[in-house]
């Protein structure tokens, strides 16, 4: 409630104390609300003011993970304010002033309440300076988000609750502001953020990197990457680019030397096709048995590529596998039965127990396997070893043919397998693979067994296990295409909305990429496949228009971000000569209406836990394609361009988008959007004018896009496990 003062009293007070703030009645300066009004997150953001600019001055010590900060926040009051809130989580607040005067602060949950000494008048600008320090929190969502410490620094990435982890903030898309971020780090460490690098100054044993993000930005889009990066600054098409790739990814891991001597035996990598490489020898084992020990250093694809020890009586059919007595083998079956198609010999050790179900219905197959095959047991291992490991295998008596075997499918491979220091307790066949005139000491490398394709390569003596091609090379290939991708998208969406661009890839177990304004952060795991890396870059750059320049007005509307960025990938797919948007649309529409989890979910109101559900991405893009089919290409691309132009620098809601689409198309579209954004599979009546015939192999096409299009890599972070370089 508000109350007017009698005119006479107002005059008297102002005459008595010109220019001095008046001690107002308590209710004339109420507290701003603790939330900005988002029903999904009632405490996100705050009421009563609008931030214009954040000036963050932080220093970070990679040794202790302690961040020390001074945040200067320039804001304008949108009501008389006796108190106001900021969002701030963790960290120790050391001091806070408003307009240079110490303020009273209290903290509860994510809310920092500031009571300035003097009330702030509606419309006036005020400055908050907060000093704080602490170790910022890492969030557990998506396998780690927020302020993430890395092996050589830290990276800040995630949404929606990240900014408050490292500075006091009005954290909601509705309050955009410009940012200046000065990051002080030890000398020799790089510090990357958004926008433009305005200075980099060394002082003693530290270095300060100052970044200016001049265009209004939602706070969660602020990133900070600290560590050893190769930074590439350049200009293209009038845009300033900063690309930062973790130095470790550029250099790649070092070669792995032998355990002893100068040589080891290396499997090589079969990235051209499947392989079944054996290292074989026949040994005469006495009645009491014998022990075969050897050193293994392995990096093979999880679930698909196995290392195993096979044995049979020489010339016999009693094939089996032998367990490692040190526990490195197990009975896990990984991607069985699929790897049996490449290497059917493995049915000696595993049994395909899949159930085809109705032979007429290819969708009801249940795939499964059991350990134990036609002649023997299953003892094998996939994945990465933690350095060299010692295997010890008990050999049965007799004339025994034993093979150390590496069976793989095609294409995705790790570094392969190194073997060294084979010791047989009888002495026969012991070898360290040295160049001594008898390198293999009787061991041979036979052809792949019956049913497998010929091996593209096989075991060779080598000086080391060579490093794989650095991931940074493949990141670079995609980063080099950024100007081209921006031009392609600008052609459809209108001018690129910002003055800077680029990307960050850190060596860290990150489960997603994020559209940080002007400088997206990508998980390294998007760049494993040399053919398919550009889609994620297209996705995050498309977000610069939809998500960043036009942010969501409420978190409920994430389909306006993710549907658009995903649809950009479909357009890029067509541009690149892969499936076109019609094909992709049809493939996803082949998912039966009974798939409740897929179609039952209302992407227009996904709930706070469903903001980034995969349905929001794909069905959001389906919604746009349905709109395109309804209104035709001309109106559709006008709508996209006008959406970016009319809401640039601000936020948008679903209703505003529908209104715009109706204005441009002059069609009534609310029924269409209700159908596509609500629960239930939409009904599509027949092929539209642009439609191609439906794809025959929907699962393959759909799978391709599951892998390519998600903000999350399609597979768990297998490459990172156990790597600590
Ligand atoms: Zn996205």
Q: Explain this structure to me?
A:
The longest helix is centred in the C-terminal third of the chain and has 33 residues, at 614-646. The strands form 8 sheets. Strands 5-4-8-2-1-12-15-14 form an 8-stranded mixed sheet, with no helix packed on it. It has a 5-stranded antiparallel sheet with strand order 9-10-11-16-13, with no helix packed on it. β4 (92-98) and β5 form a beta hairpin. α6 (534-545) packs across α7 (559-575). 45% of the residues are buried. It has 725 residues and is of the alpha+beta class. The protein folds into 4 domains: 1-28, no CATH class; 31-227, Immunoglobulin-like, CATH 2.60.40.1730; 264-462, Jelly Rolls (Sandwich); 471-709, Neutral Protease, domain 2, CATH 1.10.390.10. The model is unreliable at 1-20 and 687-725 (pLDDT under 50). The radius of gyration is 31 Å and the shape is globular. Zinc ion binds at residues 515, 539, 543, 562, 565, 711.
